[in-house]
Design goal:
By secondary structure, this protein is mostly beta strands. 0% of the residues lie in helices and 55% in strands.
Length: 121
């Protein structure tokens, strides 16, 4: 069964960096658009960054210039490099991807399990 498996969260001081990874486990045919969302304490889930299969990116204003989304199609994996972290970046981060499991089928929406990022001194 295909899953998205996240890794890389943790505790970091303000100004520090973390890199999140999200890998599609199991066999897939193609990975289309992929995204990172986050949900802070008592906040709604929000889109942080996205990247299309062609490499076009889009970022939330709050993270533009500090976060970078990237992907490695050969590994069915995508990343979120987070630099200059601030306390307001504290949240559970979720990865999301449109995965085509078999040739000719419709891509389906998959979510990772979430990983906690805490920015605190």
């Amino acid at each position: 069964q295909v899953q998205l498996v996240e890794s890389g969260g943790g505790l970091v001081q303000p100004g520090g960096s973390l890199r999140l990874s999200c890998a599609a486990s199991g066999s897939i045919f193609n990975m289309y658009g992929v995204r990172w969302y986050r949900q802070g304490p008592e906040k709604q889930r929000e889109l942080v960054a996205e990247i299309t299969s062609g490499g076009s990116t889009n970022y939330a204003g709050a993270v533009k210039g500090r976060f970078t989304i990237s992907r490695d199609n050969a590994k069915n994996t995508f990343y979120l490099q987070m630099n200059s972290l601030k306390s307001e970046d504290t949240a559970v981060y979720y990865c999301n991807a449109d995965l085509q499991i078999h040739r000719g089928t419709i891509p389906l929406d998959y979510w990772g399990q979430g990983t906690q990022v805490t920015v605190s001194s």
